[in-house]
Write a structure and sequence with these properties.
Strand order of the largest sheet: 3-2-1-4-5-8-9
Radius of gyration: 23 Å
Strand content: 5-15%
Number of domains: 2
CATH topology of the largest domain: Rossmann fold
Number of helices: 21
Bound molecules: uridine-5'-diphosphate
Shape: globular
Structural class: alpha/beta
CATH architecture of the largest domain: 3-Layer(aba) Sandwich
Largest sheet: 7 strands, parallel
Distance between the termini: 23 Å
Number of strands: 15
CATH class of the largest domain: Alpha Beta
């Protein structure tokens, strides 16, 4: 930054989903550590959720300001304090939270108009942020919590001549058009809003319009993971993209992690001492992100598969209460008879009924594979820990992320989930079950050993090294971040010198 010039001032606006809040916060931290004046615009309970990492950042001399917004609890009919979807497993509550988030627009616009920053980094759920930024003559960076690869795949499906329009059945495989790799999918694995026109289609279209109307895209990923897709994205959209992560490598300790109001019933010490007694690569870690609540029937299939695979495991289950509140009869609805006791007795497995310290677990040498729903953060965390993945996508862009792991990099084994769902709480029960034999086959493929598993392991470790190099001194992500900060400084000084007056009325966009 220019000597004596006031620091660049950036506002970050997270949405209400836990992983989006956390990953945007990690970007705040990254910018603040470079001397940028960072303000997070959020509600008290989301700020409370970030209390621990905020304090940790402060202790490390990294200052992140919080501008508190008043959540319209009464207007949307929610009790005070329910301001995000952390730990929420009820569609009605989640819908109200999202509605409340929409109503924050006026407060945010007013604040930003009165105290304009030099740049806005806003989550995709704020499509109006691009217009506001254009009006203020400042850049808006678009953030959607995922990578360039899934965005390019979705864009390919949206094209008028996309081959999915000619698929003869839901399970008929075809290759997506115009991408750097031949990516094979089926209709049943594509998001329904891209196949038909429904309410979500309109919402997603408004997000895309706002992305095309912004300055560029910021991504918590590293260039080496999706090189060809950066180029593809920039070519097809005309927008610039900055890969500045993976930030998870900068915030690895559980001390840096946000607080969840989900119960963590097993202590970190207990987990670590159990893992310490296990051989390297001998334990499977099973976790489906912050909001995947499977049906009892599906949980039963997972438990049965893990038992018959013969391998050790840590299994995270969020929607089940503590053991002492559950009868054997309750348990038998979602696991085989005396499964938990048997696994404990045989020192085979640990069920975490609540929030797990995921990065701590993944980083342990005993973890040999990660069964994941392919959420972008989990994908990053798996790669950064050097752990091969068993891919079990559910919703959002996860079926695309699976392809990045399994088809592009060969570091994931597909479990064979083949039904995209919009809402895991409601829809999963009516869609296809993934049967135990498929699950067991995928587990054995990675955990039994053999040449193929060794190759997969080697490939993921090579990517880990690339991720570390990217975020390290002189690495691609560091260079990108520097370039972005310099670019924002340049725009700021043009603005303060009156060089871009004509940018004020909606013209402030960066074409690649
Ligand atoms: N996570 C965790 N413990 C859990 C479940 C999830 O720490 O028991 C964290 C995980 O490490 C990741 C995030 O929650 O950082 C999940 O984000 P992701 O993008 O993978 O999936 P989402 O929750 O958005 O579906």
């Amino acid at each position: 930054m220019e000597a004596n010039s006031p620091p660049l001032k950036i506002y970050f606006i997270p949405s209400v989903g836990p992983s989006h809040i956390v990953s945007l916060f990690e970007l705040c931290r990254l910018f603040a550590s470079r001397g940028v004046h960072v303000t997070l615009l959020t509600t008290p309970s989301s700020a409370g959720f970030l209390r621990k990492p905020l304090l940790r950042a402060e202790a490390a001399g990294i200052r992140i300001h919080v501008h508190s917004l008043k959540f319209p609890s009464q207007e949307v009919g929610l009790p005070e304090g329910v301001e995000n979807v952390v730990g929420v497993d009820d569609t009605d509550v989640a819908t109200k939270v999202f509605r409340g988030m929409g109503l924050l627009r006026h407060q945010m616009e007013q604040f930003m108009e009165q105290n304009p920053p030099d740049c806005i980094v806003a989550d995709l759920f704020y499509p109006w942020a691009s217009d506001l930024a254009n009006r203020l003559g400042i850049p808006r960076l678009f953030f959607d919590g995922s990578g360039s690869f899934p965005t390019c795949l979705l864009e390919s499906v949206r094209r008028p001549g996309s081959p999915h329009r000619f698929a003869s059945s839901k399970s008929d495989p075809f290759v997506l058009a115009g991408l750097p790799h031949p990516i094979t999918v089926t209709l049943s694995r594509l998001p329904d809003y891209a196949l038909t026109t429904n309410e979500i289609t309109y919402m997603m279209d408004s997000f895309r319009d706002s992305e095309l109307n912004c300055y560029g895209r910021i991504v918590n990923s590293f260039a080496e993971l999706e090189e060809e897709y950066i180029e593809h994205y920039e070519k097809t959209t005309g927008k610039a993209v900055w890969h500045v992560g993976p930030t998870t490598l900068l915030n690895r300790s559980s001390e840096d992690k946000a607080e969840r109001n989900l119960k963590a019933v097993v202590s970190e010490d207990e987990i670590l001492s159990w893992l310490n007694s296990k051989q390297p690569n001998s334990v499977l870690y099973v976790c489906f992100g912050s909001g995947a609540y499977f049906t009892d029937e599906q949980l039963f299939e997972i438990a049965s598969a893990m038992e018959s695979s013969g391998h050790k495991f840590i299994w995270v289950v969020h929607n089940k209460g503590r053991t002492e509140n559950e009868t054997e009869e309750d348990r038998q609805k979602w696991m085989p008879r005396e499964f938990e006791e048997r696994m404990r007795r045989e020192d085979r497995g640990m069920i975490i009924r609540g929030w797990a310290p995921q990065t701590l677990i993944l980083d342990h040498a005993a973890i040999g594979a990660f069964m994941t729903h392919c959420g972008w953060n989990s994908l990053m965390e798996g790669i950064c820990a050097g752990v091969p993945m068993i891919t079990w996508p559910l919703h959002s862009e996860q079926f695309f992320n699976e392809k990045l792991l399994a088809q592009v990099h060969g570091i994931g084994v597909e479990v064979g989930a083949d039904d995209w769902v919009l809402n895991i709480y409601v829809e999963y029960a009516t869609k296809n079950l993934v049967k135990r034999d498929r699950i067991e086959r995928a587990v054995r493929k990675l955990m039994d050993g053999g040449d193929e598993a060794m190759d997969i392991r080697r490939r993921v470790r090579e990517l880990t090294e690339k991720a570390k190099a990217a975020i390290g001194e002189g690495g691609s992500s560091q260079r990108k971040l520097t370039a972005l900060i310099e670019d924002l400084q340049r725009l700021k000084s043009m603005r303060t010198k009156g060089g871009i007056d004509d940018a004020k009325e909606g013209e402030f966009k960066r074409e690649k």
